[in-house]
Amino acid sequence: MFFVPWSLCGERMISKTGGLTIMTDSMISVTDLRKVYRMGEVEVQALRGVSFEVVKGEFVAIIGHSGSGKSTLMNMLGCLDTPTGGTYRLDGVETQDLGDDDLALVRSIKLGFVFQQYNLLPRQTALRNVEMPLIYRGVPAARRKARAAMALRMVGMGERMEHRPNELSGGQQQRVAIARALAGSPSLLLADEPTGALDTKTSGEIMDILTSLNRKQGLTVIVVTHEPDVAAYAGRVLTLRDGQLISDSAPRRAVAGPQTLERSI
Amino acid sequence: MTATVSNLGSLVPAVQAAPAEMLPPLEADAGAFSLTEVMRVAFDSLLANKTRSFLTMLGVIIGVASVVALLSLGDGAQASITGEVQSIGTNLLTIIPSSPGTRAMGPGSLSGNTPQTLSLDDAEAISALNLPVTGVSPQFSAGADIVAAAADKNAQVVGTTPAYFVVNELYPANGSLFTETQERSAEPVVVLGANLAKDLFGNGQAVGQTVRVKDVALRVVGVLAPKGSNGFGSVDDQAFVPLSLAQQRMFGARTPDGNSYRVGSISVAAQNPADLTSIEDRITVLLRERHRTKADGSTDDFRVVNMASALDTLNSVTTILTGFLAAIAGISLLVGGIGIMNIMLVSVSERTREIGLRKAVGARGQDILVQFIVEALVVSVTGGVIGLSFGALIAGLVSLSGLLTATVSLSSVALALGFSLAVGLFFGIYPARRAARLNPIDALRHE
Asked: 3-state SS of chain A?
């Protein structure tokens, strides 16, 4: 496996990391990551020096109560925000000093996002929604369509490509959102409370899709959640409290079943 | 094997089915966010709010339509003025009496209270200069009752020489014009304008009949072909008699010194319009000498009206007027632009989440910027094209009504489209920049 220094990359980089990768390579390396928000006179320390590594092919859950800093960490990992201090290397790219356009490029090439509220464009078909990230990568229309269709089939939405979000159930919309995240062959899939708006059964289906993408395709998955049942799907759980990592453990896999998938608050 | 995931009843097949296919790595990215896609997204979002898009466009439509209509009507008005003046003849100089110091406007004042300071001798002196002219034609006209057997009518009686018909390009429809000999001998003959002949004799034959003017019996020798208005009273309503007859027997126009006869005006037609100015100068100098007025013109008792320069003046007046009206119409275009900016700002705030999402999946600030600018441009240019058609329609309707011949010139089309493009760009940039600068995190959280 080789890392191309980001500074040496051209405007658009060829992704070398789609498909299966060697499991022991570093995907994420976070060192002493800090984030301070200034709200008027008050400084809020959202992250107070977080360090951890994630290797390729891991399935990691980040849990914590609201205010623990997990959303801030999620934004940093998703290259949506820049840290106040510390370093973050994503798939060989040092991201902490990148400008807005370079961060957009990293998001475009390396990352796939799944949000709690799906965030599909309401007037576009499922297919168009999945095509959207590829538009910004300049993929020609025909190839874009083919990839988007393939991604939709991967999440079991092959029959509903021409449906609009309001014609789909919550679970189906989240599948479309996962397909959208997959379309660009990301190195890392980031899911922010992916089951937060779904019932228990549908939550299980969504988590099963993420699990199988991780196991069968070796996709690195990070799920941010406050639900232990969701975290239970992950091979590793990072717990945040007050902006610090307080535990890094591998919980036992919960027995899949309606009783144990009850929501806990 | 791909459809099993849609079997929602079971969790196990879903796990097995999901990775059945694998996406190949995405290689060799073209990099450019293509214009077709930008246009597609722009049209999608405009069509999603059809009423709003149309109302926004309406500002530009009205602005462009009024600019185009006013410009073409202005052009039409100018063309019609030019046409009228040219029908009199742009190679024509008219010398009229004028009180020193007054600026009588044009030959319209020749029937006014201005003292009649021009004489037949003046006209002969001008002829004697041997200038490159086709004719020098003095005339003396006055209103009088023209009495025929069955009807009578008050009309302008113009005493003149046959040169007048040449200078003014008048031709007989029936009979003939009076001759040089008839003029010199003050023969009691008359040539009637087309309308006047109809008024006096109905549809009957006028030539050969007799009319009485100021107790002089005149034989009708000819009727002119209809000419239409020349801007200063139609020749169709006038009667033409030999100048000497009018001066001596009808209106008693002897000069105060008794040596000559007064004339109302003298028309001079140049062979070549380019010579007009030099001819005008020669005549002015001659008349100042003859009338013993100062060489600087301050005591001139006559004025030389140059039709070409009068035309220039008129044209510049209509151009200024047209430009002024178009500028006012342009203000409505500006207001339309502000409408675009307003709606674009609303659109940006409504689509904050969408912008956040697009940024999260890799759109750069400039991609969003281009997106919103193109949307503003689509509104303004579409409005511009519709406005242009409306403006052309208005111009066409006015032309159909026969008032003016208003044609939409290529330059006004270019102006209207260029303007609407500029308006879209100018008023689109601010909202687009706002959209481009949105922070993706805040945008995604936006409700």
From this structure: CCCCCHHHCCCCCCCCCCCCCCCCCEEEEEEEEEEEEEECCEEEEEEEEEEEEEECCCEEEEECCCCCCHHHHHHHHCCCCCCCEEEEEECCEECCCCCHHHHHHHHHHHEEEECCCCCCCCCCCHHHHHHHHHHHCCCCHHHHHHHHHHHHHHCCCHHHCCCCHHHCCHHHHHHHHHHHHHCCCCCEEEEECCCCCCCHHHHHHHHHHHHHHHHHHCCEEEEEECCHHHHCCCCEEEEEECCEEEEEECCCCCCCCCCCCCCCC
